[in-house]
Design brief:
By secondary structure, the chain is of the alpha/beta class. It has five helices and five strands, in the order βαβαβαβαβα. α1 packs across α5 and α2 packs parallel to α3.
Length: 145
């Protein structure tokens, strides 16, 4: 999706994911659920923060306030843990629903994210059926139902 095609802010699901295969699978799973037109992807933590803070490359439609964020923890330039902390320190985003999607099943990661106020933590599924279940959880977190 291009910046000119961004949906209204109230319908935007922002996905921070660096792996192109995972981005494709997430998009396919949302498409199968009828929600692919509301996704916008950023590829690393720096791009995520630039998007949220309304930096010039994303300001054609003004600073974006997504209805929720799907956040990978392991990303280049700024990992998801750093981005999550930065997001939660910004009062504008204190209530933003955040669903962490990670390959990590670490209790330390889960606890860290929970303490920062995430809405849900999902270990990335390894099947398409699991991805569809993840989409249903995401739709609930993002109030898409």
């Amino acid at each position: 999706m291009s910046l000119n095609d961004l949906p209204e802010k109230a319908h935007l699901i922002l996905v921070a994911e660096d792996d192109p295969d995972d981005r494709l699978l997430i998009e396919l799973a949302f498409k199968a659920s009828g929600y692919s037109n509301c996704l916008f992807f950023v590829e690393d933590g720096e791009a995520l923060m630039n998007f949220l803070m309304g930096r010039k490359e994303y300001t054609e439609k003004g600073p974006a306030m997504p209805m929720c964020l799907l956040l990978d923890l392991k990303m280049p330039r700024k990992d998801g843990r750093e981005a999550l902390k930065e997001i939660r320190l910004n009062p504008e985003y204190s209530e933003l629903p955040i669903l962490v999607l990670s390959t990590s099943n670490s209790e330390d990661d889960k606890q860290y994210c929970t303490e920062l106020g995430i809405s849900d933590y999902i270990t990335k599924p390894d099947t398409f059926a699991g991805l569809l279940e993840m989409v249903e959880r995401a739709k609930t977190v993002c109030s898409c139902n």
